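Running this now, will post back.
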Amino acid sequence: MSTNALSGLAVVTVDPDEYPSGHAVTVPGLASLAPLVRAYLRASVDLLPTETVDLVELLGAELFTNAVRHSRSGDLGGLVTVLVHSLPDRVQVRVVDAGPRDGQPSGPFLRPIDLDREGGLGMHLVATEASRWGTVYQRGHTSAWFDIDHAKTPSAQPVRRIR
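Update: finished.
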């Protein structure tokens, strides 16, 4: 990621003592920042097998997009925090948003599948591909998370990709 991609962007790093097994980044709740979030997710798990990296990127980007589209984080001045925890047996990604807009559902949920409707399949993707997933509501914020167990992907040994 080039420095130009970050110019004019307020990125806040969360105190590592608060999240000892990982790190986090907070970005404005703008759909246009999805590529930056994808790059952050990919870089955060770069030493893991390609299948795990791809899955973390895909599912994490889905949660980020949902936070921007369906929460107050997508409103003017809203923020989204993306946390990546590398644990001995799994990777956990959490996306924390500013909570639901007034009168809206309180967080991500599985909608009935309707192939005639645009959208609504992202959380089914998360539910199908993640080892576990869930939602936590705390202090007005919504935290959607998922785990990817190392054993879920075919090659469980860390690899280093050459760029």
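Confidence is low (pLDDT under 50) at residues 1-16, 155-163. More later if anyone needs it.
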